[in-house]
């Protein structure tokens, strides 16, 4: 009787500890996302700024880089050497570039395909750039017009939510590819 209850106790506690470990995995991500959120909120203090060169033109200074005094110091927030965010600010725009974690060759391929799929539909995402900054997987460009038309905190929430979900999506796709490969291999080996 005691052995059965001890087994049940350890089995139940093992299940509880494994359930408790799931949020801990995302808890390591939380400080990284909080740092990105705080930096983005500070960088999104944008205002309308007309071009100093051409009359009646208003271009994102972070893209044009016409004068150094209008640009802020770029900030890199890094979780590790492969997973980082570059936030480049200026007086009227902010460019956010994200490097997604890619542990192996399958994740690299899945990330490349997924990002290409997203960037082909950039017009549906108002702040998504068609081409990322070199060395990063995807980039967003937020201008003062976006902050005037949309809530700033919602823009920040979108970027943070995107960063949370992209990791989950790539992990799920990798599991799906591995499961499918296992099924195909089993079917192929049945012939021998």
From TrEMBL:
GO molecular function: actin filament binding
Domain of life: Eukaryota
SUPFAM superfamilies noted in UniProt: Arp2/3 complex subunits
Pfam families cross-referenced by the UniProt entry: ARPC4
Signal peptide location: none
GO cellular component, one term: Arp2/3 protein complex
Gene Ontology terms describing biological process: actin filament polymerization; Arp2/3 complex-mediated actin nucleation
Keywords (A to Z) from UniProt: Actin-binding, Cytoplasm, Cytoskeleton
Subcellular location field: Cytoplasm, Cytoskeleton
Keyword hit for Cytoplasm: yes
Gene3D superfamilies in UniProt: 3.30.1460.20
Family per record: Belongs to the ARPC4 family.
Chain's role: Functions as actin-binding component of the Arp2/3 complex which is involved in regulation of actin polymerization and together with an activating nucleation-promoting factor (NPF) mediates the formation of branched actin networks. Seems to contact the mother actin filament. Actin-binding component of the Arp2/3 complex, a multiprotein complex that mediates actin polymerization upon stimulation by nucleation-promoting factor (NPF). The Arp2/3 complex mediates the formation of branched actin networks in the cytoplasm, providing the force for cell motility. In addition to its role in the cytoplasmic cytoskeleton, the Arp2/3 complex also promotes actin polymerization in the nucleus, thereby regulating gene transcription and repair of damaged DNA.
Protein name per UniProt: Actin-related protein 2/3 complex subunit 4
């Amino acid at each position: 009787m005691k052995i059965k209850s001890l087994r049940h106790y350890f089995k139940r506690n093992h299940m509880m500890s494994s359930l408790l470990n799931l949020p801990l995995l995302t808890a390591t991500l939380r400080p990284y996302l909080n740092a990105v959120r705080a930096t983005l909120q500070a960088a999104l203090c944008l205002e309308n700024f007309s071009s100093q060169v051409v009359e009646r033109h208003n271009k994102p200074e972070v893209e044009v880089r016409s004068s150094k005094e209008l640009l802020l110091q770029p900030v890199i927030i890094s979780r590790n050497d492969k997973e980082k965010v570059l936030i480049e600010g200026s007086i009227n725009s902010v460019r956010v570039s994200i490097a997604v974690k890619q542990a192996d060759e399958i994740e690299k391929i899945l990330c490349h395909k997924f990002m290409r799929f997203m960037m082909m539909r950039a017009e549906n995402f108002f702040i998504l750039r068609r081409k990322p900054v070199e060395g990063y997987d995807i980039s967003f460009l937020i201008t003062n017009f976006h902050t005037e038309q949309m809530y700033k905190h919602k823009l920040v929430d979108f970027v943070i939510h995107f960063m949370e979900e992209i990791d989950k999506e790539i992990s799920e796709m990798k599991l799906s590819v591995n499961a499918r490969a296992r099924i195909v291999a089993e079917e192929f080996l049945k012939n021998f």
